[in-house]
Amino acid sequence: xxxxxxxxxxxxVLNANQANTTLTEGRPESxxxxxxxxxxxxxxxxxxxxxxxxxxxxxxxxxxxxxxxSRGSFxxxxxxxxxxxxxxxxNNSGDASESALRSVFSRLKYSFGDKYYIQGNVRYDGSxxxxxxxxxxxxPSFSIGWTLSEESFLKDFRPLSFLKVRGSWGx
Length: 171
Fold this sequence. Notes:
The protein has one helix at 152-155; strands spanning 2-5, 13-17, 22-26, 29-45, 49-72, 90-112, 116-127, 136-147, 164-170. The protein is mainly beta.
């Protein structure tokens, strides 16, 4: 206890104040789980044709929960337990959240002579963060490419070792 006395009469206590002590305890808990399954297929057809395929599945799950409690104005400052604090100055709180994402995806890629490329992708994603009516969506994409540095007119051009042009479209 801190006492404030009168300057002219040190025996007279004008005010008494206890040191401001607060104790807060928290118990957070969270989990994140990720699972993936992938299958790849690659095939060379003759010398110049390359076909690659990918099929996959992914699932993510997140869970979080927290609990917090506090009390203030402890009479004993070196005894750190919540139940010793003042009942008038107590507080507690808690929260929780959960989310999940599930995806199925595929890719098909074809190349000719390591010069010309075409690729198509499809993803089908579902998220718990959206309303049930809008939870799932399809995301296609498509691209084409041309490796100019593999062409005979640029093959021996020393300042340039690799040049590829690629265009794509996707949702």
